[in-house]
């Protein structure tokens, strides 16, 4: 494991992060799949498409460089989609993705979320394993909602107990 991976911080979206958000996601999407219209839409203006609708975007910063991101997209009261999670290829396997996802889950829980949902692809086995270790469970076929993404063939959720 790369010990320098431990030296990073996680922070929320700041003006100027739009380019890093787009590039981080384009890197992994185009390596494995193709950019779809929904990708282009959400990556082109995250302020309008995610933040202005009650969502949040988090970034992993290492040595002044943005090396990871993850969005919480507001779906309905108490429910968010975990979306556009990306870690640069050079930093994958260093624990940055795990800490980023854990931070996003903790922030969602602290803000009163009752359920997190995500879509992924069966080919992304390291990501699926990460989601499962954080507590996400695969949805049975009868609970899967049609996705706007052709590549999405695995749906998962994490529910928080209500007090």
Describe this structure in words.
Pfam families: Acetyltransf_1. The radius of gyration is 15 Å and the shape is globular. It is built from 5 helices and 7 strands. By secondary structure, it is of the alpha+beta class. The longest helix is centred in the N-terminal third of the chain and has 15 residues, at 18-32. The protein is 32% helix and 28% strand. The chain has a single domain, classed as Gcn5-related N-acetyltransferase (GNAT) (Aminopeptidase, 3-Layer(aba) Sandwich), CATH 3.40.630. The model has no long low-confidence stretch (mean pLDDT 94).
Descriptive tags:
acyltransferase activity, transferring groups other than amino-acyl groups, 7-stranded mixed sheet, transferase, Bact_Acetyltransf, alpha+beta, N-acetylglutamate synthase-like GNAT family acetyltransferase, GNAT_dom, 7 strands, 5 helices, 32% helix, 163 residues
């Amino acid at each position: 494991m790369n010990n320098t991976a431990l030296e990073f911080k996680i922070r929320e979206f700041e003006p100027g992060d739009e380019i890093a958000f787009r590039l981080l996601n384009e890197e992994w999407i185009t390596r494995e799949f193709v950019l779809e219209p929904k990708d282009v839409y959400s990556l082109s203006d995250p302020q309008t498409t995610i933040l202005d609708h009650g969502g949040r975007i988090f970034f992993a910063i290492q040595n002044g460089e943005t090396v990871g991101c993850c969005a919480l997209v507001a779906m309905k009261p108490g429910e968010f989609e975990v979306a556009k999670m990306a870690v640069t290829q050079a930093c994958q396997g260093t624990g940055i993705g795990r800490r980023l996802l854990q931070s996003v889950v903790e922030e969602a829980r602290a803000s009163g979320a009752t359920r997190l949902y995500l879509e992924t692809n069966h080919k992304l086995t390291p990501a699926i394993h990460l989601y499962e270790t954080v507590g996400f469970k695969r949805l049975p076929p009868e609970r899967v909602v049609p996705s706007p993404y052709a590549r999405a063939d695995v749906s998962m959720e994490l529910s928080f107990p209500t007090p």
